[in-house]
Structures are given as C-alpha cells and as structure tokens.
User: Fold these one by one.
Assistant:
Number 1:
Amino acid sequence: MFKWWDGWPVREEVDWAVAARSSLLLKAVSCWRSDADSWFANAYERLPETVRVNPLSDDSEWVEDWLKSVDCKPIDWFKGPGSAWQMPFERGRAEGDVKSILAALHETGRLTRQEAVSMLPVLALDPQPGEVILDMCASPGSKTTQIAEHLGDSGVVIANEVVRGRVNLLVSNMQRHRSRSGVVVNHDARHFPNLPEDGYDRILVDAPCTGTGTTRKNPDVWSRWKPNGGRSMQKLQIDILSRAARLVKPGGRIVYSTCSLDPIENEAVVAEVLRNYPSLSLSMAQDAIPDLTASPGMNEWPALSDDCSIVQDTEQSETFAPPTESDIAAALPKCMRVWNEQSGGGGFFLAILEKSADAPSRRAAEVEETLSEEKAPRDHDGVPRPISEAQSEMLTDEWGAIPEDLWSRGKKILWSTPQAHSIWASERGRRGGRTRIPGGRWRPLKVASLGLEVAHLRRGEFERVVGAAASRIVGITDSGHTKVPSETIDKLLSGEQPEPFDVNSELAEFRGNHLLVDDSDGMAIPVWIGGRTSLMLRTSELVILRAIRGVEPLEESQQTNEEE
Ligand SMILES: C[S@@+](CC[C@H](N)C(=O)[O-])C[C@H]1O[C@@H](n2cnc3c(N)ncnc32)[C@H](O)[C@@H]1O
C-alpha cells in the first residue's frame, strides 16, 4: 500500500498530492510496470538542487572546493568532463550566501544548474573535440552547454530551436556559459537544412514530450497528463528523429531522449525510425553510463484507453503498438529507462542510435546549375560574418595580435572556432543538390548568434573588451592592457576607485576603457579610466571574484558600474 501521505508537510502541495494519487499517470505507470508503488513513492517530492561544473572555466577547482564546503556530494555516475554535484537542499531552496554565490556562479557560466537526469544524454552522445554536433531541440540549452564542455575550443555545436522567444533564451545561455563552440540557429528540426553537406558527427534529439518524468519539478503534470498526450506528440518526435537519421554521417551517432516515461513517445518512436532507416542500429545505452542504475527499454506495452484501462486495441496506429519485427523487438532493451527511484530525481528515457559506417553518403544529385557569387542568395544583415579586413586592422592596432576566427555582428565582435568557419565557407546545394551555391554565407542556416562575445564596437570603432572574455583575450593579445600587482586588483574589487596614476604611472594621462591584468595570475578585469579608475564588471562577476580572492567590499562602495 502507498504511504503517500507520509512526508507531505507543505500544505499548498496537498492539492496536487490528491491529483497525483488519483491521476491517470499513476494508472498508466501501473500498466507499464508491475510495481508502480516504488515509482510513485519517489515521484512527488521536490527535486534536489543539482549542478554541473564547467571545466572550461579557470576557476573550476575553486568552484568544486566551494561545493564541497557547503556539503554537496558528487553525483557518482557522472563521468565528466567537469563534475556534477547534488546540493544538500531542494531545488530553488538555497538561502543566504549560498543562494547568492550559487546564482552568481550560474550567471557567470562557472556552473550550470541542471537536473541530474538531464545530464545523461550528452554523456551518451560523448562528443569529441573537433567534431561537428547538432543539438536539434536545444533551448534553453543546458545540454548544449554540456556539449560545449566536451568540445572545448575545437569543434562546433549547432544549437537549434524552433520557437523564436526560446532562441533568445538559448543565445543568452550560451553567452552566460562563455564557450566559443556554439552556433545558435532557428529552424523547425523536421526540415533542418542539409548543411554541412557531409553530415554531422553526432546529433542530439532531446525531443519535445509530455514530461511524465518531470512530476517532481512540474507537479501540474499529475492533473494534465492524459494517454492521448503521448499519442499526439509522437508524429513530431518521429519526424524530428527521422530528420536526424538523414543528417548524421555514416559512422555517426544519434542520441534520442525525452523526459517522458510513456513508451509511445520513447521505444515506439525508436522502433518506427529503426523500421524506416535500416542503416541505424541501437547500441547499449547502459554501457555509456555504467554506474547509473537503470532499466532496459521496453518491447511490450499495452494499448490504453482514454481512462487508462488496458484494451485489446487492434485498430491503434502501428506506430503506437510494440514492434512485431523480432529484430527490432530484440533490440529495444538496449534503450535506457531511468525511473525516478533509480535516479533519485526525475524519470528519463534515452536511446543511442549508430549509423553504419558503410551507409551510403547522401546521394549527390546531378548538378544542373552552379550559382555565381553575384546570383547566390546573401545572408541578411544582422547575421554574423567573419570580421572585415578593416576590422581586423582596427583590432590589431588595439591588441597587437588578434585571435583567429573572429566574427562581427552589429556592434559585437564574436570569437568562434575553425569548424564553425569551415561550415560557413563550404559550398552547398539547393533543390536536393541540383543547384550548387558557393560558400561564404550561412544560408540556408538561419544563424542568430555564435561563439563568445569578446568586444563591442561604437560607431564602427573599437570600444571595449567584454568582461566575460577579458582574461581569455589578454592571453592571446600583446597590447590594450596593463599589468598591475594583485593588491591593486583587490583594491578595485573592494570598491576603491584609485586615480589612474596610482594604478600605474603609465596610465596617468589615459582616458577610456582598458584592461588591468593581475601580474601574478593573469586574471584580467575591465575598467573605465577617467578622473578615477572604476570597475566595469557585472555584479555576479564581482560577487564571485570577491569570494575567490577573499576581498571584502568597502562599506561605502556597494555601487558598481554595470557592464552591459
Ligand atoms: C525538451 S526541450 C529541450 C531542452 C534542451 N535540450 C535542454 O536541455 O535545455 C524541447 C525543445 O524543443 C523545441 N521544439 C519543439 N518542436 C520543435 C521543432 N519542430 N523543431 C525544433 N525544436 C522544437 C521546444 O520549443 C523545446 O524548446
């Protein structure tokens, strides 16, 4: 018997507790597994707070030490790069200093707050530096940032989202993360363009779903979910995964994941795509995450009526029913189901599909027309393009030496990777490849943003380096910055505003934006030099730098200049 009233201390949660006990979802889970009680007992409490530490940040060791100091425990099945931690309180329930440092660590990209099971698909995808990855349903981008951590500064992750408003969310999340490898695009994944033409090394399909595994985060799922929810999502899920099947390279990998427990959105989708794409095969998902206790994929499930009774429904669509082909039925247990009691968090599903290395490459159509540069469609204004010669000269004047792979978009200078440039530069086809279009453009990709924002222009002239990129830029450039002792940096962080001469005698006459570099550890901070020298840091960055360096704010210096 459920002892489900135990542990319901919060009064306002009682309503959805009642909804949970009488929900169709509980009835459905009782049809999908024999011991639904142990799932239910673990499917309603608030989730624990969990985070992923960004290994690309120079401060990752400090972050890990801080997490240990506030009693966080490493998540033992997470195998990196970076590390993952469970905090000793529920999601959103941090207090005091822990709350402000946690928020600032997230805002400055040093860690990402992410539900533990949501970290699984990227471990299964296993992206490698240098690769070209497509994240087909990417917003808000927690998995895209995790992919970027696998790639480092080599490779590219094309992060796609169909909903415009959610594209903006994805762009800000990528900027928060401070990685260079992301390119954010805006397409319906079902019709994602065939670019790069030789396909993607790996594709993540983290599909839209009914979210039946998210009851600990979204309690309204208890009252909202109905069996026709999964049935109505399935065609979209199959269509997106089918597009991935076409876009992945021979020898490449696709990971399909959902936060749903419904086999119609999971195993049934995988079965249909295996049926239609014989060059794909499942590989054992558990092998990719050996330390996590999970269950195999299902190859039998009953048809459910609208009130979740089992029916002998011979009329249901073939794509809703378990597969009748013995090879597909035998393969489905290679998928991974994570029930709430196994993760200690949410429920999840994932499948790893590999495309055979000798699958034919996409057939090259007979070329009927090759468009000249003049006739080829151009990118719209506002799309990032490689910096012009004039911009390159201007930045070289400022910095002495400039990094490769700089782009400009409006007033922003962005820093990307060679692989992003190769996609932009590659020739491509239209009309199934019958029309050839020269490279040197993003079209047909609709690019919203890329790489890391490193500098701002004003009326076409260099204005300043962005704080988030300052330390990385001074590691590459020769000028545009001044070395100062650690104590000077600490004074500025505490809120002092020294006169320029006291910062460095060479700055006595200088006026404008500048970077100061700690001469002992190379850390750089942006400042504005006028009559006095003031920090140009976001509050969240200031909170963390003070914590890392043990700097106390001056009483009267609570005001900090906001950077952006
Ligand atoms: C499960 S969420 C993705 C979560 C994300 N991967 C993460 O880890 O932060 C699914 C996303 O797919 C988007 N989506 C829905 N239909 C889509 C389509 N046809 N093409 C591309 N994205 C789609 C939704 O707007 C939603 O943002």
Note: The chain has a mean pLDDT of 93.
Number 2:
Amino acid sequence: MDLRFTDAKPTDEERAAVDACLGAPEVGWEGGERTAEELRWARGGHAARARRDQLLPALHAVNDRVGWISEGALDYVCRRLTVPPAEGYGVASFYAMFALRPRPARVLHVCTDLACAARGSAALTGALAELLGPPGGAAGGVRWQPSPCLGLCERAPAALAIQAGEQGPQAHGTDAADLADPVDPAHPANLTGSVGPAGVAGTTDAVHPPYRTGPVDRSGLTGPADPRGRVDRAGLTGPAHPTGSASPATAADEAHPAHPAGAHAPAGSADAETAPYCTAVVGPATAGTAELAAVAPCAAPEEPPAAAAVPQAGQDGLVLLRRIGRVDPADLDDYRAQGGYSALRRAFALGPAGVIREVLDAGLVGRGGAAFPTGRKWEATAGRPERTHYLVCNADESEPGTFKDRVLMEGDPYALVEAMTIAGYAVGAHRGYLYLRGEYPRALRRMAHAIGRARARGLLGPDVLGQGYAFDIEIRRGAGAYICGEETAIFNSIEGLRGEPRSKPPFPVERGLFGRPTAVNNVETLVNVLPILERGAAAYASVGTAQSTGTKLFCVSGTVRRPGVYELPFGASLRELVELSGGVPEGRRLRAVLLGGAAGAFVRPDELDIPLTFEGTRAAGATLGSGVVLLLDDTVELPRTLLRIAEFFRDESCGQCVPCRVGTVRQEEALHRIKDLTGAAAAGDIALLREVGAAMRDASICGLGQTAWNAVESAIDRLGVYAGALPGSGPAAGTPADPVDGGVR
Ligand SMILES: Cc1cc2nc3c(=O)[nH]c(=O)nc-3n(C[C@H](O)[C@H](O)[C@H](O)COP(=O)(O)O)c2cc1C
Ligand code: SF4
Ligand code: FES
C-alpha cells in the first residue's frame, strides 16, 4: 500500500459504509468531486480534522461491511477526516480485527490461549486444519485463524465466527435481551429527561418473572418496528441529545477551543448498533461446531445466557452478581424492580463530593489490575479546574483468562449504565466513553440497548432523573489490541491514533482523553459503586479486610470442573475458591495456579492458603491482577504454557519502547530454545531471561513491558519448571476431598 493518497477509489459499498458512519460528505474536499469554487478555497477542513476520533468507527464500518479495508476505502476515510494516509494506515494496521488485504467475509477466530490450550485447543486447531486447510487460508470461503484469549474462557476451547456484510447479529439467534424492551404504556419514552426520582422509584410496579427468553411484545415500542429487532434509535441522534447543548455545562464544554468537536459525536455511535455483520460464539468448540458456525454464523444457535457462566447464579449473598440470571438484561423496568437506580438517587441526594466521600470511606480499590483507590482517582479528577472532564469505562478486558466484565455487561447491563452515570456525576463529567472489547458482540448489543433505553427514559441525556445533570454514554468498540486496555492507550485509540500508551506523568486525572482530566475505571470497579451507595460505605467496608474491602469477582478457568465467574468476599483463601469450583477433574493432580493472568504469577498447590486480597497476594509474591485464577493440572505442559505467554506479549507489545519491543522477542526466543530442556542445559537461557526480564521491568514505559516477565519468572523460581522436579508438587496430597487431587465435586 502506498502511504500517500492515490487514485484508488472506494467501491460503492465501501463509500456507503463510510458515509453511514460519518454522514455524507458536505464538500468536495472530503472525498467527492470538487467544484470550481472549492478548487479556489477550502471549506470544512478544520471541522473534518476535529473529527479524527471517528477514524476507528469509520474503519470498523468498512471492515464490518466488506470484511477488509482496501486502499480505496482507507484513502476515502482519510480524505473524509483529513488524516494523512500514512497515519490512517498506521491506525488500521494496529488492530488485529482489521485486514488490509483481501480476505473472505467469514473469519473464524479460534482461541489458542492459556485456558483453551489447557482444554484441548491444539486438538481443535489440528482438526480444523484438516477440515478447512491451514490457518490463514480461504477454503470454502472461510478463513480461520488462531486468536489470543477471546474472553470466553469458561467455555474453552472457544471460537468466534464473524461474517462481514450480513444482517446484524440481532437478525439471528435473538434472545430477549437483544430486542428493544416494550415500553410500559404508563411510562412512555421520555426524551426530554423529565422523569424525576419519584418517577423512577415509584414505577417499579410490575415485578417481572425471572429472566425471560420468550417472545417480546413489541407493541408500544417508541420507534417504528424494525424487523431486525434492532434497538430503536429514537433519542440516539434526535434533538434531545445532550450534544444539542441542552445543558449549560455541555454548552460550555463545546465552546472550549481545545475540545475536538468529534468528542460530541452522537452517543451510542452508529457502529455500535448498525454494523452490518453476524457473529457466532462457539464453546466448548469441536471442529464440527466451529466449522458450522464459521460457514453460517447468522444461523448459529443462541448462546447460553450469561448466567451459565456463573455457577453461583441465583444464590443468596451475592453482591455484584446478585442480578445475573434473575434480571432480564433487556428490561429496564425489571432492573428497576430489582433495586436498579436507587444508587443514582442516593448519589443525587449526596452530591458529587458526598459520593466521593462514600467511595473513599468504602475503601474501594480498582479491579482492573493496578489496584488504585477509586475515591482518590475521582477526587483528583473532580478537583481539576478545567471545564471538561471525562469518564472512561475500561471494558477492553483482554487479559488472557479474564471474562468477568463480559458476564457483567451481558447479564446486568443497566447496572453499568447506572454506575457510569454515578461516576460521571462524581467527577464532573458530562460524557462517558465505554471502551468495549471488539470481540464481545453480545456485550456490545446489550450495552447499546441498555444505553438507548436509559436515554429514552431520561436516565441518560440532558437532564438525568430531572436533576439538571447532563450525562451520556458513547460506546467505542475496540478492534483487537490488548494494549488498548492500558488507560492511556485507550485515549489514543478513542482519539483516532495508534493505541500506544502515553508516558505518565501527566496522569489521566490531569491530562487524559482529549487532553482533559479523565477518570478511567474498570467495569467491575464501577459496578461496586452501586452497593456502596445502596448499603452505605460502612456496610460495604465491613466485608473483606481492612485493605481489601467488599467482594471480588474471580475468573476460574483451565482444567477445572466448574469454570466460571465466582464472587467471594476478599479474604477467602485460594483453597476455598478452588474447592468451590470443584478442583481439577477426577484422577488429575493440580500442578499450578496462574493468578492474575499472563501478567500475573504462578503459585504452587502447597500455597493454596494464600488469602485472596490485594495485600495477601502481594505478600505472597503474587497478584490478584484482573481476577484470573487459571488451574493447570498435570496434563498441562508448563513450558508450552510459558511459551504461549511469551508469544502473547511479543504479539501485543505496541513496539513503542525498546526494552519491551526487543525484550518480549528475546524472551520468547529463549523459552522456545529451552522448551524441552531442564537443569544445566537450560541455565544459560534462564540467566538471559533474568537479564532481559529485569530490563523490561525497569525500563518499559507501561505495564505491559513491566509485567511481561512476571509469570515466567514465577514459573522458574516457584515452580522450578526447568529444574526437573516441581517443588511443592510432590506426591499427591490426596484425601479424596482435596481439590489438588481431583477429589472435590
Ligand atoms: C497492558 C495493559 C492492559 C490493561 N488492560 C486492562 C483492561 O482490559 N481492563 C481494565 O480495566 N484495565 C486494564 N488495564 C489497567 C488500566 O491501565 C487501568 O489501570 C484501569 O483501567 C483503571 O481502572 P480501575 O482503577 O478501576 O482498576 C491494563 C493495563 C495494562 C498495562
Ligand atoms: S512497554 Fe511495551 S506495550 Fe508498553 S509502551 Fe512500551 S512497547 Fe508499548
Ligand atoms: S477464551 Fe481461550 S483462553 Fe480465554
């Protein structure tokens, strides 16, 4: 591809896809024929440049419609947004979900990452190669390719099929949550946001039966019935939208010269809801089911409900997972009937400073991996004098073995909408971005739907709950880049730049998205704010330990009997969690547990009494990270697992800084050389690994490089992987009830 504008033209389909996302070009300078007048002077250039943040949605639009991004299409997108083609190419080539060379419209992503590898992904890919040819081919109009973790680890081995250019995912296998929920005639859509607190509190008259999957009554929908069951778009782009400067605060924001107008593009961006593609998730996959899904994803059977990923679903005592399986994820009234929006009402009663006080007193600590106190982050953001503040919800969830945020978004989407509204209120933001992993089609649909319904009912928009506070949420879909989960890389990704982390300081609370003070929080972190406000800080903090308050979600996967998301109070031991999940299968022996994901650390079977707290895991030289608990039994070849971790970091390094760019490659090479060696034969490479690991840890710009050696180091030092025998593995400890010994059911 030539990195300058060429004569390549978009096809009609590509042009239509881009125009559907960006609107039709208004002047010839934006990619159409120029008039004689336009050849003398330029109009619209500044406006187009200010829409740079539409680059990623526009690339998605083409990729979704056609399956790949041609030179003509990229040129057209770049002209429309006045982005130099070299930069457009740099962005498009950054993301794994985009292709810049022709490929079939149907692509099957087959996970070969840690949990799937432990559950037979090698056999699956071998069988697929026989059926469909080698990976990367195009047999039968399908391309299949290995993929990093798809966030479906409880269903390992898992695969995701995507078909570009077909009717949207809602067109098939639709469950209730994918449809617009019927509007109660007593509470019609309220686009002007005049629903008051009493309205919300008092209208939860009908307690719905538990999560329904039956047909949805479409009478009373606010928009024209859409045969594809799409979310109605009333209120998405209409005059009631807060970008229409309905609130004084929003108007002030827009007047700010440094603020790109693109930041105020319609919320619930087009790409979240109108993308023309089909998806199918398969798991546990066989070659046959994966092939079937790849050939006809639009006709694939419906996925199991989110509650299927929660073995505790429906049990008493759950806090964050309490509604999963009980609430209809499509139905706002059902959410309200189950306590929804009481936390937001309390937030309005407390005021922003009062909310931050509660969160500080509750001791809430971020669940995205860095364990930073949420109240302090909010306080720092709220206290900045600049007028425009932003909230970003980090739903990128790409740490191998992590899937809790997906389950929360699929099973209880309004909870996140409510929590984001509270967070926005506390930090003084009028706009929140939900940066959602591109490989999460169902979470995307459900969040887009929930945001649309909340907006239609005045729970988002220019006057939330009639309290004079303007807030709206825009979804931004990631496109397959683990690094975009790093909080500053998200900013670059949203702004239409390559998703490379920024140097800190300045920290996001000072200069974040669009250079403005920004609070970035993980999905699970935000959802914790609801029980804090509903029950009060003291009640919340009475659960857990002094430094780790509340409950924690754990993503249990690998060779385990009952994989899934578990909720436990902080302070429970790893042993309790392993027992709850049934331990390793009958006749197997636990060999190691990876805590915290690829960036985490291995622990031995004789270390199961580690308390699952931030301080407890730290003291044990491990980390909770994003809540990954990957069990590996004695059938798993640990050197192969380490190699996979190293490959992951090599692939996902953004390449911006030398220690990480070079170090992750050297690490992978060394692990490759010693994959079948132990003792003296491996010693030279282990010494090299230590040297490279120290350089990455000390000198990398961001957490990816800083943690890329953690798991490997722990496997060498704690598990003695290359030493021969595994310390602590010993003979089976085994009473029949020992989870280490495959006896617990
Ligand atoms: C390479 C890398 C990937 C990350 N991925 C995620 C992610 O997918 N989700 C997330 O919430 N945090 C992720 N983080 C952590 C974020 O940078 C940030 O700390 C977090 O979103 C802050 O939210 P919290 O305070 O609520 O935890 C990642 C960090 C790094 C270094
Ligand atoms: S540490 Fe790695 S991922 Fe992070 S900025 Fe440097 S090269 Fe990029
Ligand atoms: S989906 Fe395969 S490891 Fe997560």
Note: The first strand starts at residue 106 and ends at 111.
Number 3:
Amino acid sequence: MRAPCCCRPRSGLPFPPFLIFFSSLLVRARPGWALQNVTSQLFGNQAYGTLAAFGDFNSDKQTDLFVLRGDGELNIFLADQKEPYFKPKVKLLLTNVVITSVVPGDYDGDSQMDVLLTTRPQKQPNADLSVLIFWGNNQTLDVNRKFVLNKTFHDEPLIMDFNGDLIPDVFGATSDSDKPQVLLGRNLSWHIALDTQKKLYTPHSHAFIDLNNDFTADLFLTTLAPPNEIQFEIWVNQDGNFSKATHMKRKPKDVKVVGQSVFADFDGDGQTEHLLPACADSACQKSVIYLSKPGLDSWFPVLQNFTYKGTLWGFVPYDSAQTNFSFPITLHIGDYNMDGYPDALAILKNTSGSNQQAFLLENVECNEASCAGARRMFKVYWELSDLNQIKDAVVATFFDIYEDGILDIIVLSKDSTKTELAIHTLKNNFEADAYFVKVIVLSGLCSNDCPRKITPFGVNQPGPYIMYTTVDANGYLKNGSGKTYFC
Ligand SMILES: *[C@@H]1O[C@H](CO)[C@@H](O)[C@H](O)[C@H]1NC(C)=O
Ligand SMILES: *[C@@H]1O[C@H](CO)[C@@H](O)[C@H](O)[C@H]1NC(C)=O
Ligand SMILES: *[C@@H]1O[C@H](CO)[C@@H](O)[C@H](O)[C@H]1NC(C)=O
Ligand SMILES: *[C@@H]1O[C@H](CO)[C@@H](O)[C@H](O)[C@H]1NC(C)=O
Ligand SMILES: *[C@@H]1O[C@H](CO)[C@@H](O)[C@H](O)[C@H]1NC(C)=O
Ligand SMILES: *[C@@H]1O[C@H](CO)[C@@H](O)[C@H](O)[C@H]1NC(C)=O
Ligand SMILES: *[C@@H]1O[C@H](CO)[C@@H](O)[C@H](O)[C@H]1NC(C)=O
Ligand SMILES: *[C@@H]1O[C@H](CO)[C@@H](O)[C@H](O)[C@H]1NC(C)=O
Ligand SMILES: *[C@@H]1O[C@H](CO)[C@@H](O)[C@H](O)[C@H]1NC(C)=O
C-alpha cells in the first residue's frame, strides 16, 4: 500500500500544489457537458504508476507530477508545452525499500523544492516508516544528497509548519516516544510536539488547517480514547502554541468504519465544515457521509442513499494487510461546476459484485429532513460517461490539468494482470460564464536575493487560509474561502 495523489493518511496534498480556488458569478452548464479522455495527450505511453504528489519542481510556474513505480522508483513528470504535456524527466531510484509516500516542500528554506520520501523495508508491510529528505539542487535530485531522519514513524508523518517559520516540519508518533514528536525543518532538530498520552489513530487523518477562521492553521487530530474509541480533537493555534484540546468530538453513533476526515466550506458561509465518510458495518454495506460543524457535536448525513437501479454501492473498506493497492476511504474535494460549493469524488464498490468505480458527488441544496442541519447534501452522478468506463478505480482526485481554472479529474485504476496502476486523465469540458481567482502562496523567504541565485516560485506550503467576499448576480454578498492543507 502506498500513497496515491492527495491521499490522506499517506501524506500528500489534498489539493493540487498551491492554493487554487474558484468562485463564480453567473454559472451556466452547457448541455451535453461531459468528461473527455485526454490521457494520451498528457502522458503518451507513460500513463502508469502511482501518482503520489503535485508540485512545481523546476520553478517554471507549471505543476509537475510525482509518480512512483516499482518499489523504489520516483519519477518526476515535468510539465511541457508540447504533447505529451507531462514527461518523466527526473528520476530517483532507491534499492531494497518500498517508497510509501512523497511530500515535496522546501525543508531547508533555500526556496528550492526538496522531496521528502517515506519508505519501509521490502516485504514488511507492517514495519515502521523511515523518512528521507532529498535536497533539491539545480532541479535535480541526487541519491547521495539527502538527510535521513534518525527516528522511524508508526504511520505516515503529517507535514505541517509547527513553529510558524514557513518551513515545513515533520510531525507524528515515532518509535521511541509515547508523545508525538516533530522534526523542525531547517534546524533538523527533534522536539516533543504535544503533551498528550493519547494514541494517534492509524491510518491517520490528521490535518493542519485553520478551523477557527483566525488565519492561523490549527492541528486536527484523530485519536483513540480507551478502549479504542475514535475521536477528533482540535489543538487551536494560539500565538504560535497549540493549546491542549479541551473538547473531544465523538464519531457518529452507529459508525463501525471511519474514513478520512476532510474539510471544506460545504454550505458557502465562510466557515469550514468537517466531512466524514463512514460505514455502519465492517463490510461497508451501509455507507454514509456525515458532516459536522466545528465546535458542535451533531453529525448530519449528507449522503446516505447509495442504491441505484437495484445495485447497492458502498465505500471500499481499507485493509492494511493487503498490499495490493488498498487505500483508506477518502473523499477528494473540488468545485467541478464552479457554483461556489465544493463537490467531491469518491470510490465506491458494488457490494454484491467486485467492480469498483469513481463517482462524482455534486453539492446540491438539501431536500431531505435528515440533512436540514447541513443545508446542502451530495447527489451522486451514477452514470457519468468516461468516469464510469474506468473499471477497478482506486483513487480519484480533482486537478486543474490545463491551469484554466476548471477542475479536471485524475483516476488511478488497478488491473490484476499488471503490477502498476493505470493513470487516467479526464478533461472537464464545463463551460461557464464564471470568473476564477487563482492564488499561489509563496513562502516569501526570499524573492530576488535567494541563495545560489535560484528562482523561487510556489514551493508547496502547508496551512495558508484565505477568505474573500463576492457579490453575486443578484447583488447578494457571498463569503468564500480557500486553503491548502497537508494531511
Ligand atoms: C544547472 O543545470 C543546468 C543544466 O541542467 C546547467 O546548464 C547549469 O550550469 C546548472 N547550474 C548550476 C549552478 O549548477
Ligand atoms: C534553530 O537554529 C538557529 C540557528 O542555528 C537557532 O538560533 C534556533 O534557536 C534554533 N531553533 C530551535 C527551535 O532549535
Ligand atoms: C538524531 O539527530 C539529531 C539531529 O537531527 C541529533 O541531535 C541526535 O543526536 C541524533 N540522535 C541519535 C541517537 O543519533
Ligand atoms: C508558547 O509556549 C512557550 C514555550 O512553552 C512559552 O514560552 C510562551 O510564553 C507561549 N506563548 C503563549 C502566547 O502562550
Ligand atoms: C435512492 O435513490 C434512487 C435514485 O438515485 C431512488 O430511486 C430511490 O428511491 C432512493 N431511495 C431512497 C430510500 O430514498
Ligand atoms: C496481489 O498481487 C499479487 C501479484 O501482484 C497477486 O498474486 C495476488 O493475488 C494479489 N492479491 C490480491 C488480494 O489481489
Ligand atoms: C453488481 O454486481 C452484481 C453481482 O455480480 C451484478 O448482478 C450487478 O449487475 C452489478 N451492478 C452493476 C451496476 O454493475
Ligand atoms: C483513455 O485513453 C487511453 C489512451 O488512448 C486508453 O488507453 C484508455 O483506455 C482510455 N480510457 C477510457 C476510460 O476510455
Ligand atoms: C461573511 O463573513 C463576515 C465576516 O466573518 C460576516 O460578518 C458576514 O456576515 C458574512 N456574510 C455572509 C453573507 O455570510
């Protein structure tokens, strides 16, 4: 099992690289809106491997793709002006280990993108994870220019900016301590991160995100209270210190399987809501997506009807023992139709068959009593052409392939006759009279006087939060917000 793009426990970006968000005025979907397969234009014959992260590796203001192949091979596909638009140009090969995740970032503050990899020994799916940081150097990676962390992690670490110095830090439960540890970037020194005895839940779904709208990222943790009860805690960032969580939110009653928490302004009021995909039974015959508001305990189902034309669909339970591409239950969020409300992508399986597919969940006004408290709900597109042709999908995420403000879709699928995942890219032909705002967050550590004369541009940055107010076509004010968060 390893980290697909933007996937949660296996740290990556839930959003493409920098902070990109969209808002809209007049939105009109063209009739016959569809998704178009553009895989070969993008990748040629190289559309395989686990797409694990996004980031602008060579500072050309275009997003590059980080793809894992085999056990220990990282390929960076650099964006190009000519077809195929992504070409594998930078390669790093590690031996005797399995790379489980990739997190690009500037870990030493020289404004060049470095690449953090987590690895475990081959044939030991339950071993602790080692963490290595390969230093970016003139847009290449050298297997010998690296820093190896001298502690191992029980789970994928969370990449966050713990001390607010704009340099990403590495947070998680290490093998030598009961308390979560953090390795501070640049200093590369270890510190006890939080004063808590609670066990962090594995696979983790922690997040570094502003949850109280003070423009400072807080720490959201999923922990285990005795006896193994999953709960959620928010450590609020107060003047740079994470203050001990005083309130624990329990998981919804009757929930047996908990997926990865994700955060979005679901009803467009400027506040961030917590979305939780879950199942009422261990086989996920009864799946539900819940929503809750920060600080409140109630959970509202925003999707609970998974039946279509006699087939009952459900989330795919995560099996950590199965090494063949089992991923935690995850929603990937993005506003595909530019109506200002976040939509989602989910992987569901036919509960009586074996096929699993990616589905688009549209955020629509709530028309059922159960979701009234959430104001909005999800409607599933059960028959979305080209998305439903991809069999055995394992990951689906939004990505603005053409950098035109419209979110396209990337799907990874497995094929039992092949050892690598197949990469599919679907262009969103949505046409709308809408505007979009793209915000790129820079660390600001240097601008024109950077060390070694490098061009700084948009190295992935954890935690920023932006809020904006727009006026809609009817003259009403609408709040929106955008954020990147690492997970
Ligand atoms: C960086 O690499 C390019 C070619 O890859 C080379 O032309 C250039 O001299 C290198 N710069 C430095 C500072 O090493
Ligand atoms: C990091 O290193 C700098 C200089 O090397 C030092 O001044 C600073 O105190 C260190 N910070 C921490 C948190 O160790
Ligand atoms: C681990 O590395 C840190 C620096 O990152 C160093 O201070 C410490 O002594 C090392 N510990 C061991 C056991 O080598
Ligand atoms: C944050 O924590 C540090 C170290 O524990 C302490 O010295 C400092 O006063 C705290 N700051 C605030 C604003 O609480
Ligand atoms: C579930 O949705 C389907 C169509 O998507 C509908 O036919 C069916 O009546 C719904 N079931 C319930 C219990 O609402
Ligand atoms: C996992 O993959 C191996 C070979 O790649 C195959 O033999 C095995 O049947 C697969 N297991 C499952 C559960 O799909
Ligand atoms: C789900 O699986 C059952 C059993 O294999 C099959 O009869 C049914 O057609 C499948 N549904 C869909 C939509 O593929
Ligand atoms: C998309 O196009 C590629 C390359 O032409 C092809 O291999 C793949 O099967 C297509 N995918 C779908 C879902 O049609
Ligand atoms: C937008 O946010 C501001 C500041 O939080 C708040 O005062 C205002 O009522 C909000 N407006 C709407 C339409 O939600």
Note: Residues 3-29 have pLDDT under 50 and may be disordered.
Number 4:
Amino acid sequence: MRKHILLVLGTVLFATPAFAHSGKAVYEQTCFSCHAKGVMNAPKLGDKEAWAPRIAEGKPTLMNHADYGFKSMPPHGGNDDLSEQDISAAIDYMVEQAGGYPDKK
Ligand code: HEC
C-alpha cells in the first residue's frame, strides 16, 4: 500500500519538468510586469494567438531575443541578475502556458 503511494508520487514528480518551478518563479519575479497584461504589446501569458508565431521562430531565436532584447523587449527582461538558465526556464514556462513547443505535444 505504502509502496503504491510512493510510486504514484514518484510518477507525478517525474512528469513535472524540473525547470517548471524556477521558470514560473522567474516569470513571477521579472517577466510578469510586462507579459501578464501585455505592456507595449508583449505577448501575454497563456495567449496562444500571440505566442504561436513567436513559438514558431524556435527556442534559439526566442532565447536570443530575451537575452539581447527585441524591439520593446529589454535584454534579460531588464533584470541583469538572471542567468541564461533562468531566462531559458522563464521562456519555457511562458511557452508551456501558451500550448508548448510543437514537437512536445
Ligand atoms: C519591460 C517589459 C518586459 C519585460 C519585463 C519582459 N518582456 Fe518579454 N517582451 C516584451 C515586449 C514588449 C515583447 C514584444 C516585442 C515585440 O515583438 O514587439 C516581448 C517579447 C518577448 C518574447 C518573444 C520574442 C520574439 O522573438 O517574439 C520572449 C521570448 C520574451 N519576451 C521573454 C521574456 C522573458 C523571459 C522575460 C523575463 C525574464 C521578459 N520577456 C520580460 C516586454 C517585456
């Protein structure tokens, strides 16, 4: 019985990508200030239509734009304390909220 519970728990933990938490945390700390409400036309969290053409550019392009800036999107979302992994996780988090990458259905 106990073993069963542990097994189920283990499955749940493994099914959740390891980056999910920190990506969400980074988003909530930095990215939400523009991406929650669509400030300056930032693609909103969970807005599939706004994200679809951006997701189609591919992760390397999104990463590049988030790292170095893109139009009104400031480099690192304006937070220089964020590492490459933080940025990457935050992008993955926002992409997942908008339906995810096409190859990960
Ligand atoms: C000061 C406001 C602001 C903050 C903070 C911000 N963004 Fe953005 N972001 C924007 C805007 C505006 C755009 C849309 C740029 C455009 O296409 O005109 C954008 C677009 C993007 C895109 C899509 C780029 C593309 O190629 O279409 C990604 C990815 C992104 N942001 C990631 C992030 C991440 C990750 C963070 C947090 C670390 C963040 N942003 C924080 C304003 C912001």
Note: Residues 92 and 100 are 8 Å apart (CA to CA).
